[in-house]
Fold this protein.
Amino acid sequence: MCAMTVILQSELPDDMHVSRALPGIQPEVGPWLRVDEAYAEQMARREALLAEREADVLYLDPSARAAAVELLNTVLDILPTQGFQRDGNHVSCPDGRAVALDYSAPMKTLGRLCQNDFVLMQKRGDEHVLTGAVLCFPASWRLSEKAGRPLVDIHVPVSEYTDDVARRVQRLFDGIQVGRPLWRFNQLWYQDPELFQPRSQSEPRRVGAGLTEGPYYRSERQTLLRLPQSRAVVFAIHTYVLARADVPELS
């Protein structure tokens, strides 16, 4: 088991301040792929998890390989705007690492380049199914329990995820358009700042139930976008963890 690592940001992006009501899904107006002050430390944690816990943080159904490669190429097109440089088959990252592009392991390569976690959802029949992911920073769920499952099964432990909500979420996924990403963010409170927080659906939840519980504020900026060729929907999840004193509305 990896020891707990303390990696914190000191501030949130302007569009994620706690004083705002949690948004429903809304159009993405800024860059959905970002590098922040915690990039070097978060990437060191990701490299360790990918080396030590690969089975826990990576999944790719063979049928989703083309979508994963498409996602990698999409991200590579954006990286130069965020301080990365590409030279042939290598990418120089803002923290000084050189990452070799391994198209035989597209999700792992994404996990070595970006602070984001990425989850691929593809239409299988009438539902979107989780077909691939690099999930180094899970917020109280286990990739192994969700891999290969449809949206409704992924959310089964969430009591408020009713049949009506499931239908509305599926309609949302069906309606995501190429070139028009959407985004939302959530708010969670934890007793420790560890980014790798897997939790089985059968385990007690380790997050405070209320807005003001816990010494560490954790927020995920979640972007949803559709890939043009595979038509896969991508969750791109950028995780922020702040100490309570650095959350302006609560300090």
Remarks:
- Helices lie at 39-52, 54-57, 65-78, 106-113, 143-146, 151-154, 163-175.
- The chain is about 25% helix and 25% strand.
- Residues 33-185+223-237 form one domain.
